[in-house]
Sequence to fold (1359 residues):
Amino acid sequence: MSHNRRRLSQVAAGTGAVALLVAGCGGARVGASTGPGAGGAAAGNLRCGQINLAMNDWVGYTADGAVYSYVAEHSMGCTVKQIPLAEQVSWQGFSTGQVDLILENWGHADLAKKYITQQKVAVDLGANGNIGQIGWFVPPWMVTKYPGILDWKNLNKYASLFKTSESGGQGELLDGDPSYVTNDAALVKNLHLNYKVVVGGSEAALITSFRQAQTHKTPLLAYFYSPQWFLSEVDLKKVSLPKYTPGCDANLKTITCDYPTDQLNKVAATAFATKNPAGFLLAKAFNWTNQDQDVVAKYIAEDKMTPAAAAAKWVKANRTIVNNWLLGIPGAKPL
Amino acid sequence: MSAGALVSGLSVRKIRSRWVWLILAAAWLALYLAFHGTSTLPLSASSTTSVQNNLNSFNNNISNGRNSNPVFLYGVNYVQVGMTHFVSFLQSLISQPGFGRPAPLIGWLGVIAIVGFVSWLTAGWKYAVLGVVGFYILGLQGLWQESMDTLALTIAAVLIAVVIGVPLGIWIGLHDRAQHIVLPVLGFLQTMPSFVYLAPLTLLFLIGNASATIATLIFAIPPVIRLTDHGIRAVAEPTIEASDSLGSTTWQKLVKVLLPMSRRTIVLGINQTMMAALSMVTIAALISAPGLGQVVIDALQTLDVGTAFNGGLAIVVMAIVLDRTTSAVGERSQQVGGRHLLGPQARRLAFGAGAVVTLWAVVESAMYVWANTFPSSPTIGPAIVAGASNASNWVQSTFSGITVGLRNDVTIAFLNPLQSMLTNAPFWLVILGLCAIAMIIGNARVAIVTLISLLLIVGTGVWQDAMQTLAMTIVATVLTLIIGIAVGVWMGRNRQVDRFIRPILDAFQVMPAFVYLVPFLALFGASRFTAIIAAMAFAIPVVVKVVADGIHGVPAPAIEAATAAGSSTWQLITRVQLPLATRSLALAANQGLIYVLSMVVVGGMVGAGALGYDVYSGFVQAPLFGKGLAAGLAIVLLGVVLDHISQSAANRIDPSRH
Amino acid sequence: MSGSMTPPTARLAPDGRAGDLEAPDDEGLLRVRDLWKVFGKRAAEIQGSQDLRALSRRELIDQTGCTAAVRDVSFDVAVGEVFVIMGLSGSGKSTLVRCLTRLIEPTGGSIEFDQSDLLQVDHKQLREVRRRQVSMVFQQFGLLPHRSVVSNVAYGLEIRGAGKAERVARAHEMIELVGLSGYENSFPHQLSGGMQQRVGLARALAVDPKMMLFDEPFSALDPLIRRDMQAEVIRLHHEMGKTMVFVTHDLSEALKLGDRILIMRDGEAIQLGTGDELVGAPADDYVRDFVRDVPRQDVLTLRWLAQPAKPGEDLGGLALSQHTLVRDAIRPVLESSSRVRVMDKDRLVGLVGREEILAILTSDQK
Fold:
C-alpha cells in the first residue's frame, strides 16, 4: 500500500517536471501582449475593459455592432462581448448589468420611460445617424399591374390577391420576427382591412419572400423597414397608411396611423460611463448614415462575409468617419 | 370531428359500442350547426385581456421589486447570483476568458486530453478514442468555443441535477409516501413543453446563464430521480436482508449495498439527464444562453441552412460522445471482475503515462496560444456549411413545386377544416365534446380534469389560439402515428431493419428540436405546416421505437400459431401483431401527442402562430408579457388534457390480458 | 400405517406441549414465548383479544383484514442444538425465523436470547446482537454482486468496524473452512449456486456467532448439491458446535439435520419433537401427511417397536439400545432366533421381533 503511494507521488512529481520542461519550449504565450492597445495604457489614457453589447436580430444591427466592436477593439483594445438579445429584452439587461449598450434603438417610448426616466438605469446617447422607417411594402412589379395598390384604401379591393394557405379567406400581411416593433394586427383591425397578419419569423424570411415574389411575379404584402440593404437590390414600394401624427400611435386599441419616421438612437446603461469611459465615449460618438449601414449589411448578408471582416473592409474605406469618432477619446489610436 | 380522429388513432378496444360514438358525433354536429360562430372567444394578436394585463403588472412589480422584495433579496437573487457564478466559473475553465486571462484556463488541447483520459479510465480505450476524435471534430467544425459553452452549461446543469436528484431519488426510493408525492410532479414536469417555462424563469432569474441552467435543470432532472428511485427499489430483497441480518446501520446499508448495487441504473439516469440537458441547453439559447444553440438560432434568423446543419451536427457529435461514454460507464460498473488486457503493473504504468500526457496537455493549453485556441485551419466547417446549403438549395429548387403543393394540400384538406371547426364552435361545445370523449375513453376523473383544464384555458383568454394549436397538434399527431406505426411495424418485424434504423432515430432524438425548423422553414416557408412537419420529425422517432418494441414484444408462440394456421403477412400484422401490441400503440399515441405539442408550440417562432407565437412574442415584447404567460399556461393545460385522455386510453388496455 | 404407535416413553406433543418446550437440558440459549406476528393495520389488537385470537387465519382476514403469520409460538433452543422449523410455504416459518432477530418486527411475545429480551433492546443493542451473536444464511444467498468472495465474507466484520488485516485473515480462514480456497477473488456471478451458498455460509460463520439462522438455505440448489451442502452443515456443526435454527420445507432435510423439529401450519406450532417422535407419533393428520413418505426404518428407533415381553418369553437374546435405528436392527433381528431385547441402558424397555420389523418395512410400500 505505502509502496503504491510512493510510486504515485513519484509519478506526479515526474509529470510536473515533464510538463514544465515541455511548456518551456516555444510558442506564443496566452496573455502576451499581441493586440494593439492592450499594453498601451499610458498615463492619462483611458483603459478599456469589457463591453457588453446587445445584438438584436436584423442585419442592419449586426452591421452597427460589427463596426463598433471593430473600432473599440482595434483602436482602444477593448473586449466586446456581443450578446444576442431580442430588442425589448435588451432593455431589461440595463437594470441587471448584463447589457451596457444598445446601438440601434427603434423608439420604444414605454421602455425609455421605464428604464431611463423611472428606474434611471439607462441613458440616451443620442442619434446613431440612421433614420428608421417601418411600413408595408409590395414588390415593384405589382405597382404597375395593380394601380392604386400603394394606397391603403385600395387594399381591401386587392385582398384576394394575397390569399395564402395561412390566411384562410383573407389576404395575408406577412410580418417579421415576433420581437420586432409592430402595430400591424391593430392596424388591420382598426382600419377594417380584410387581412390576416402572419408572422414570418425573421428578416431573412421576409427578404426571401420578397425576392421570390419579385422573381416569380407573385403577390406579396409584407412588413419591412429601412435602413435595409435589400432595398437596393429590389426597390420595394411602400404602401401609404393614414399619415403619422405625433402621439397617434400611443394607444394600440385605437391606432389607425402609419409608423413614425424614427431617429434611431443609442442607449447605454447608466453605469457604463463610469465603468468603461472609453467604450462609452465611442458609443456616444458612433454615428453613420443609412447608406453606410446598408453597405456593411450587404457585405454580411449578401456577400456572406463575417461581420468582423465586413466591418474591417468598411472601416478601411471610411477612415475619416471613424477617426472623427475617435477624436477626443484619450488613448484611442486613429485607425 | 377532431375527437373522432384522435380516438380512432388510439384504437381503443373496449369502446362499449360504435353507436355511442355515432350518436355523440351526430349530436355534436347538430349543436355545431346551430351555434357555430357564437361564443368563439376571439382575441387578436396584439390585444390582451384583463387577466393578462394583471400578469403584466405582476411582471412589472417583480422587476421593480427585484432589489427590495425580501423573496428576491434573500432567496431568488442568491440563487441567480450563485448559478451565474457557477456557470461563469466553468466557462472560464474551458470556454470563455476568465481568471484575469484573455483566454479560458484550459484550451482545446487540455480539454481533449482530459476527455480522452477520463473516458479511458471510466469507459475504456475505445471510448477514449471516440471522445478525442469527437471533440477534435467539434474544433474542426469551427465551433470549439460554442461547443465548450454548451458543454459548460450542460455540466453545470447535470452536476446540480445529480447533487439534487440522486439524494432525492434515494429518499423516494426508501419512502413510499415521498414517492407518491414526487413521481406525479416529475410526470407533470415531463409533459410540460420546455418552451413554456423559459419566460417565467427569466421573470425570476433574468435572462442569461442562471435562467438557462435552471430551465435545463427542470427539464433534465426527472430521469436521474426516477432511475435512482427505480435502482434503489430494484435492489434484491435478500441482499438487503442479509446486510440487515449482519447488523448494518442504515448508512452502511446505503453506502455498501444499495448504492453500489443500483449504480448501473443511477448511471443510466445520469446519462438520460445529460442527454436531456444537452438538448435543453440548446433551446435555452432563446433566453440568451451561449453556445451551439445560439449558432442554430442565428442560422434560423438568417435562414442559413448550412450553418444550422453545422451547429446541429456539432450537437449530435457531442451527444454521441457523452452518451456512449456514460452508457459505457454504466455497463462497466456492472461487469465487476472483468478481464483486463494489461496486468496490474502495466496498467499502473499506462495510467501514469496517461496522467503525464494529460497534465502536459493541460499545462501547455493554459500557457500557449496554439494549444489554447483551436487553430482556424485545417477546418471542415465551411465545407459542411456549403455542402448542406447546396443540398438544401438543390432540394428547394427541385422540389419547390412539390413542397408547396404538399403544404397547401395538407393545409386545405385537413388543417383548415379542423381548425375552423374548433375555432368556430362555441367554446362550451368544444368543452362538452372533449369531456364526453374523456368520459368514454377514460372515466369521470379524466372528464373532470379535462373540464377544469379547459375552463382554465378559457380563463387565460387565449381560447382561439389554443384551438388553433389543438388543431395543429391533432393533424401532426395523426400523421405522426400513421408514419410511426408503419415504420415501427416494419422495424418490429425485422431485426435487420431495426438495427439499421435505430441509430438514425437515436441521432434524430439527440438533435435539439428547433434544428429541424431551419430546413423545413426553408422548404415550406413560414406556415403552420412547417410547424407540423417539424413536430412530426421530432415525434416520429419516439413513436417508432415504442411501436417497434411493442411489435417485437408480441409472444413468438402467438405468431407461430397464426403462421401455422396459414395467415398471410397482412393478416398476421392486422389480426395478431397489432392487436397484441395495442397497449404499445396507445403509449405511442400518448408520447406522440406530448412530443408533437411541445414542438408545434416551438413552431410559433416560424409562422405557425397560435399559442407558441403568443409565448414567444410575450417573451420578446414587453406589453405582451402577460399574454405570453397566459398562453404558456394554456399550453400546459392543453398538455394535461391530451396526456390524461391518451393515458387513460393506454391504461384501459390491460397488459395482463395478453 | 394409520394409527400412531405408542412407545412407552414417548413425550407426546398435543397435550404435553408445555413439557415439550424445554430444551433437552437446561442450557437454553433461546427462549421464545407467545410470539405473534400479525400483518395489517389492526395488528396490535389481535394478540390482546381472546375473541380474535380464537379465529382461524381465514376468518381473521375476513373480519379484520389482518394476516397472522406467526400465532402464539413458543419454543426453546439449547446451546449446540440444531433446531429445525418446518412447514409448507405460507406456514409462517420464514417469518418466524426473521422475527428472531427482528428482521421482521414481531407484534408481541418475548424472545429471550442469552438472557436478554431481544424485543426490549434498542436498535443499537439489536445491531450489536446481529453483528456478533446471531448470523443468518438466506435462500437467495443475498451476496453483494459488486464485491469479491473475500470481501463478501468479510462484510460482517467490516460493518462492525474490524480492521482490514484482521477481517481479510478471518475471511480467508472461513473460505478455506467451507472449501472455497482459490475462489477468494472471484465474484458471485462467476460461481455456481452451491458455491454461492458456501460464500453465504462463510459470511455467516465469519462473525463467529453464538447462533446461526438458516432460512431454507438449500432450496434453490440442485438435489445433488443440496446433499453436499447438507453434509457440509453437518460437518461444520460437528467441528464448530454452533447452535443452529434451520428453516426448511423438506422433511428429509429436517430429519437429517435436526435434533428437534418444530412443525408449523398457518402460523401455528403444530408439533415439536425429535424426528422419530414426529414419525412415530404424529400429532394430527397434517403431520401424519407430512411424514407419510418417510422411510420409517431410517427414522424410527427400536424403542418405538418394543413390545412387552410375553409371559415366559426367552429374554436371553441379543440386546440392542433403544436408540438403534430400525434400519440398523433389521439384520440382527431377522437373524436372531429369539426376539431382540431393547435396552435403555441397563433397563429393559421391551422386545422386538420379525413381526414388528416386517410391519415397519411393509408399511413403507404404500
